[in-house]
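Could you help me review a protein record that somebody else here produced? Here is the record exactly as it was handed to me:
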Amino acid sequence: MHYLTRKVNRMARPDKAAAVAELTEDFRTANATVLTEYRGLTVGAMKQLRRALGADTKYSVVKNTLTKIAAKDAGVEIAPELLAGPSAVAFIKGDPIDAAKSLRDFQKENPLLIIKGGIFEGKNVSVAEIMKLADLESREVLLAKLAGAMKATMANAIRTIDALRAKKEAGEPAAPAAVVEAPVAEAAAVVEAPAAEVAVEEVAEVSTPAEEAAPAAESTEESPN
């Protein structure tokens, strides 16, 4: 009878099914997931953490039982120890590095937040691994550095070309082509090297018949004697 009562109560809570479906979708669409314990954090602190994580990360207080079911439905394996105590999950839809940095920085100021572990690229990751991820440079920083390097290279090339043009207009001899190509990325030299080798081989092939023709000319001159 007790079993039947519990079963009726579960069936009378369709919101649980909806919660599981939502969590399942969150697991499936997240680039990474971090499980935390929020015991002791105030409502204000939770809001601050959500702002720090940004719009690309959904930070939700969850029930461990429903989370376990949802993870299984999504094909995600979660270590049992990650679903112990009051749990809140960060579903990261953006850059995992940025989210890891935000969690690390928030924890420094709010030690009550406990990072228990997470899932990254389909594998369980430890707290130490999440901290290593937080120490990496974000995608935006790497792209900014790459853009800066490319901009500097192009600027150097333009300055060199302008200097050559000014010399030419002033009637001075033009600088060797190598000067123009100096600021260009080393990759260009690597690409051009095989072409130079081919040119050398072609010159060698052209020179050989000329050298062979020389003895023939000498024999022709000596024939009247």
